[in-house]
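Standup notes
- DV: blocked on the single-chain target, sequence here:
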Amino acid sequence: MIMKKRDDLATEVLKSRYLMKDINGNIIETPELMYLRAAKFIAAVDKKYGASEFEAEKLTLQFYKLMEEGIFLPNSTTLMNAGREDAMLSACFVIPVKDCIADIFEAVRVTALVQKGGGGTGFTFDNLRPTGDIVASSGGTTSGPISFWKVIAETTNAIQQGAHRRGANMAMMSIEHPDIMKFICAKQQKDAFNNFNISVKVTNGFMDSLRDTPGKAHVVINPRNKKHYVIPKSIALNSYTIRDLRNPDGNTADCFTVQDVWDLIVNNAHATGEPGICFIDRINQDNPTPALGRLDTTNPCGEQPLLDYESCNLGSINVSKFVLSDGSDLDWKKLAEVINLAVRFLDNVIDASSYWPVEKIKEMTLGNRKIGLGVMGFADALILLGIIYGNIESIEFARKLSAFLKEHAHNTSQQLAEERGVFPNWKSSIWDSKYNRPMRNASCTTIAPTGSISIIAKCSSGIEPVFSFAYTRRVLDGEEFIQVHPLLERLGKEHGWFDEKAKIMLLEGSKIFDIPGIPDDLLDTMITAHEVAPDDHIKIQAAFQENIDNAVSKTINLTEETDITEVDKIFRYAYQMGCKGITVFRDRSRDGQIISAVNKQPDVPLEMHLPRARPRIIKGTTIKAKTGCGSLFCTLNKDAKGLFEIFINLGRAGGCPSQSEATARILSIALRSGIKPQILIEQLKGIRCLSTMARKSTNPEIDVLSCPDAIARALEETLGDGFVSAAEIFIRVCPECNSLLRKEAGCNVCDNCGFSKCG
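- DV (later): unblocked, structure below
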């Protein structure tokens, strides 16, 4: 075998995550040997169904060629584990979390075992009774879903330290759960649930109410006793309990409306990229085995709905490999052949995998035999075909490609059913009752994000547009790689306009149209994610979803300047277009962003902003706080664009009026000049004053650290719109070391000295 030269990023990803190592951590195989290991192990399954040794060897060669040439790759877990002893090969698992301590910690145990093997896990917390609800066995009250979610998150952190692949998680909660407000805001704290994606499960009924009666009170339901409640706006978003909620038959005038809850989702998604939205009723419309129960959550990236204890293995075909040399079309005949092989590969993975973590996973997986074949390199294929991502032609191509994938994947599954038998739960499935069609697999197609395997295949990921043609990607425990998009580099070298100078220009931040020699017709198609209109992103997603059995992983990439109202429109349009879920990500809205464009820093003076003019009439709120200098009154006024100005007044106890006035003036100028309030909060919050700290021990009414800290808390409280105030998170100071306490699982915990007090 001839070793092929690979770029640094692909090589490092393979070395770090995929290639086998000895007990000392030394790599003991090449990428080619890895592909051969996986191909041989998966092809051997055919012998179980009567294939000869020769036929198995022939299939091994076919599987090897698909992977080695980057035409088809299975999910990472299969590549890593195939051929290892007792190897788990599936990538996606759903673990139930039931309303019982024993069952909750059984979920923790199963999660640890699954993630140790490299699997990703999905959870829904709908079944857990809300915070403050009765626990009959102890006579106490429950700490609620978020606290048990934290236990699973910490388990994941611990297990992943020793795992060769860091599995991700999905957390979902129904819009009708009483703790939904906490869930929506759960990731406002930067370090909270970093190993989880989160989505709110929104029903058709909620979306109908949003359209027809957005001003009515939003009703939530206690899963324990099915009792209905409404949520007063006076609650503290991160610490309310079921006892703070009201009967919906009473006064609901000051309660959260359907529109309010929707706005909370939208505002958080705009601020942090989460939560996403899962249109759960749409998902269940396509449930292939409804007799076995409802689909309540998905795998970590949202594209694979699964039943409790069910697992699934995914794989993706690099569609850019099938573009004819003249760029006129795809080689559809060759693509059909590869689909046939890929479906057989994924069905074999089900038999080849070990299910040692829990017997129920084996039972459910073998009972339904779900697979998820999808595509990657879609954006690269469009470029090679001369099609602009997001235009009408690209949408029609997406629809045609997904229909072709569906047709041939289903045909192969039927062929396998005739050879090997239908999946065991076929009799109660839609394939029996609705289609009367023998099928080997309950579902066949899924569009996955293909993060790592698209790096290895050197193509664009999933059905996403190219993010940037020169980008910084954070991988491998935070290590960063700067690289040019592989297709751009390949085309440039083939046609003579890409050289070392062009590469340096791109890596230094020059735009693609600055590179000399690039043909105009190619430039027209080389658009990036932020250049695609949000509606066009959704149209591509919806076109694929029309023909995909499971769901579609797709992120709507937004520029940093995107307004909140745009996120609102995106979510509504995704529902209107028949998508099963939707996720947005506003550039640089979160620390630790995986991929970001290389941007050239302009050699121009910093743009100066003048503060916006003050209207004659303006309204605001005054908040009182006790400080070491007496009562502080902070008045915060808003105009149509948001927070506008601050006035600070100290009571008769004194303080420094001139300093307070100066602080207020500077903050007001900053707000009127467009500075984000969160930036000001970060600068003020936590500042300590000796006078305030000295008086805290004798005056329990003082719950701030200084006047600036009180102003920061007032800013957070006034922002509303779903932002949790610092006063709700850090409620008091450690009595032993004066550090800030934080809330964790119902306790006040000091990270500095270890002090904790619960209750």
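- Follow-up: Residues 392-420 form the longest helix (29 residues).
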